[in-house]
Write a structure and sequence with these properties.
- The chain is of the alpha+beta class.
- It has one domain.
- The protein is 43% helix and 12% strand.
- It is built from one helix and two strands; from the N terminus they run αββ.
- Strands 1-2 form a two-stranded antiparallel sheet.
- It is rod-shaped, with a radius of gyration of 29 Å.
Length: 82
């Protein structure tokens, strides 16, 4: 093999390695995309805010605290008819 042929083959090999690296990165992103989506905050709390007599309190301030992380979310209750 002459020097020119060796240079061409070496360049092709580097190009193929780069493409393989990109393909592996894309495959890993696709593979772990579902796990990343699982990290989104999602959920619902359903209940009735009442005073001591049992009367419903409209637009009550509601504070939710995650004991393990200390995350605090504040909102207002909303009326929902059943």
């Amino acid at each position: 093999m002459n020097h020119k042929t060796w240079q061409i083959l070496n360049a092709a090999h580097r190009h193929t390695r780069n493409l393989m690296g990109v393909a592996i990165c894309i495959a890993l992103m696709v593979l772990f995309a579902g796990r990343a989506m699982a990290q989104l905050d999602q959920g619902a709390i359903i209940g009735v805010v009442q005073d001591s007599t049992g009367a419903v309190i409209p637009n009550a301030d509601v504070t939710l605290t995650a004991v393990d992380t200390g995350l605090v979310l504040k909102t207002k209750s909303r009326a929902v008819s059943s």
